[in-house]
Amino acid sequence: MALETLPSPATAWHTLEADKSVLLLESDRDSGLTTKQVEERLQTYGANELVEKAGRTSLGIFIDQFKNIMLVMLIAVALVSGAIDIRKGDFPKDAIAIFVIVLLNGILGYVQESRAEQALAALKRMATPKVRVIRNGTVMEVAGRQIVPGDVMLLEAGVQVAADGRLLEAQNLQVRESALTGEAEGVIKHAELELEKDASLGDRLNLVFHGTEVIQGRAKVLVTSTGMQTELGKIATLIQGIESEDTPLQRRMGQLGNVLVTGSLILVAIVVAFGVITTGWSKFEELLEVSLSMAVAVVPEGLPAVITVTLALGTQRMVKRNALIRKLPAVETLGSVTTICSDKTGTLTQNKMVVQVVSTASDTLQVTGEGYAPNGAFKRNASSDSMIQVSEYGELQKLLLACTLCNDALLQQKKGEWIIIGDPTEGALLSLAGKGNYDQAEWTHKLPRIAEVPFSSERKRMSVVCEVTQNAKESDLDGVNHLQESGYLMFTKGSPELTLECCTSIQIGKDIQSLDDEQRDRILQENNRLAGQGLRVLGFAYRPTLSLPEGDFNESEEQHLIWIGLVGMLDAPRPEVRQAVQRCREAGIRAVMITGDHQLTAKAIAENLGISKEGDRVLIGRELEELTQPELEQEVDHVSVYARVSPEHKLRIVQALQAKGHFVAMTGDGVNDAPALKQADIGIAMGITGTDVSKEASDMILLDDNFATIVAATEEGRVVYTNIRRFIKYILGSNIGEVLTIAAAPLLGLGGVPLTPLQILWMNLVTDGLPALALAVEPAEPNVMRRPPYDPRESIFARGLGSYMIRVGIVLAIFTIALMGWAYGYTTNFHPEGLDADRWKTMVFTTLCLAQMGHALAIRSNTQLTIELNPFSNPFVLASISLTTVLQLMLIYVPPLQRFFGTHILSFTEIMVCLGFSTLMFVWIELEKLFIRWRASKALALR
Ligand code: ATP
């Protein structure tokens, strides 16, 4: 059949039987589509993508740039200054220049914002999930955008559904459809229904929809529509994957803008009023010009751009270190994290499980072999050569059968390497079964699964019911008693304590006996012994039944089971984590382990990694449940390991830590971790093993699932914050210096305004802006991870920043005013050929610029002298200083620029005098560092 004959997207799939839908879409329930079909359909239907309804149009973004109050003020300044010039009969150069700069600023802001939006979109693409499908008869993972109608898609808990589809099979499937219907409660879905045509979206219980979340169970789905044809596509109000919110700092800077504008207007009023009172109206125009210059000077025009660039560079550096930022505020606040709560499996450990031990009533066996390869043997003890024959060992046969059947993973060989698709714990069990020659395909055929209660982190176990076919009955399996006479076999695996609770008998050899207390104790002791070695231990049980229960199969069936044995698997710690934990400790950050695993396993690994130390407590989920929230708050500071916890406990732990004033980063991967991730100050999802739901709730995604990456991102966060503070000090200090210098001119009785608005804009945007950008990429200071975190709620002006700005601004003004006083006297009295009497103004302009060059050089470190720093550790600073100095000299000596900026040629001596005065600024800051050091050493000596 040709593609054109495929059903229209408007087909009412919910009214059709599953098989009919498969037929209509020319697919196959078991083998899915072929590669050729997929290619053709991709051509016809396009990629499975939602065309996002853009939040803002390009014009909107451009117009937004001018909504900034500082720019509005600049436009007002331009209008007044233009009016004055025109009245005087001069060309309104300043006004035009200001307009050009305002426009340029707008364009620059526009380019930056569009780029930032593009970058966020790219990050979002990196975060899009993979989808499990069956194609050409094989299960594979493909990118969500590659899905086409007719694909057979596999769903499990935690997955975000990637397209609309008709259910072919569903086991306890529960889906949260709030993205579509607003209904927060999960909806239970069934494959076998056929519904009325007019069933509403929320009632179409045999369909699943794009963008909804599987919260429980599993399903096989026939994709019916993709991309914009899906229900979500139709309503096209997309839940944004990555939010581009303003950071707290950007918000505070916005507020600062308001303060500065108001402040400058008040200043203008004061200067004009004071001037008019003392000198009368004759000087009004001059006073107005002074005021306009002051208004321009007070506004740090370059600052917002530098902040945006710094945050953007920060996210890029973090992505290079495998931390994908989803919400921009996280870049800035990461540095303030005081506690990192981390999952164990996969984050602290490698999540590469290898079964080491099998322990049954008769024996404890060592298992050899490496990785997931199903090659290895069972031995009585590690050093012995004698291997166990599985066929002689009843419990082992039953255990390996349970490993094979009570399992959702797939073990595959690709390019000679054994890989798993699915949960590594289950992968390890398949590999274990393979070592006893149990083939997954063969046994799932002989004992097909017909019901199940899926695994969840709350239940910590899973069960399946398999039908015993004739084929199975004919198998030569001595140990698997009841195979002949039973109709069905139920297998359960999970946390040993919880699985054992469901057991009433035990298999010993080929016999079954009732389970007494002594045997229970022995099993639990063995479990503790294995867990104490840091092994992840699972318990196995089974039960034969003749018939299936009426109605749904659920966890109430998990009783009267026969205990088979324990399996202990090793999940080695990640080698880099030990050092990362150590770095956390030095940086005043506490690492806490939160795991669903056994307390002894958790404790052994936590001790190995240095997370748990003498006197630290291990708190178990059950104990935690008995504590009230205030009691938990009393405990949290002493607990470094939480074991056997459920996702809802995580939420309580974060809340308790926050109540104690901690700033918490919390990792999570499961569907039910989302509330804790949202509550945490920094919610961190796993890029590889994380469910889509957890990613959606997170602020940051670890692309490599690695704990060490959190620490690296925290370090980057600290560097970003330190650099932002550094250039804020640098830029605002300069603004204060400029304002005071301009205000001083009329007060000292000097004729004329020392700096024109145009010159001030030049300084704020170019001669301050370029070095500030260079300071934004300053590398980490050596002590960045050897000091405690700063309070995230502290003001940006805290810890001396505000006083530094004012102090340095005043010092800069004093040096410049001193120069101004001298230069005024000198230049008005001394007129060599070709030199102008107004040269003093250019000297003030040049001194301010050059002083800021010295400032940039010195401000690279708060404590180290400039000569102690490697000038090439941030070559951008030297480069920007050199470039800016050359540009400044061009403004003075290149005639067209000179005319445009209203500068005057300076003699060599005059330039040297400017340089001399500017150098004082550099010397002052270096002396401040020496003073700080001296004070610190004195304080140390006094202690
Ligand atoms: P973390 O939160 O550090 O990732 P975890 O992965 O050990 O910890 P869970 O996956 O919730 O936490 O597992 C909790 C317990 O459930 C395990 O200790 C194990 O006993 C049991 N378990 C884990 N995976 C399965 C599974 N696929 N089937 C049955 N039981 C399992």
TrEMBL record:
Keywords: ATP-binding, Magnesium, Membrane, Metal-binding, Nucleotide-binding, Translocase, Transmembrane, Transmembrane helix. It comes from the Bacteria. Residues 12-86 form the Cation-transporting P-type ATPase N-terminal domain. The chain crosses the membrane at residues 66-83, 95-111, 259-278, 290-313, 727-748, 760-780, 801-823, 843-860, 872-893, 905-925. Coiled coil: none annotated. GO terms for molecular function: ATP binding; ATP hydrolysis activity; metal ion binding; P-type calcium transporter activity. It holds the Pfam family E1-E2_ATPase. It is a multi-pass membrane protein. SUPFAM superfamilies: Calcium ATPase, transduction domain A, Calcium ATPase, transmembrane domain M, HAD-like, Metal cation-transporting ATPase, ATP-binding domain N. It is found in: Membrane. InterPro entries: ATPase_P-typ_cation-transptr_C, ATPase_P-typ_cation-transptr_N, ATPase_P-typ_cyto_dom_N, ATPase_P-typ_P_site, ATPase_P-typ_TM_dom_sf, ATPase_P-typ_transduc_dom_A_sf, ATPase_P-type_domA, HAD-like_sf. GO terms for cellular component: plasma membrane. PANTHER family: CATION TRANSPORTING ATPASE, CATION-TRANSPORTING ATPASE PMA1. Belongs to the cation transport ATPase (P-type) (TC 3.A.3) family. Type IIA subfamily. This is Cation-translocating P-type ATPase. The lineage of its organism: Bacteria, Bacillati, Cyanobacteriota, Cyanophyceae, Pseudanabaenales.
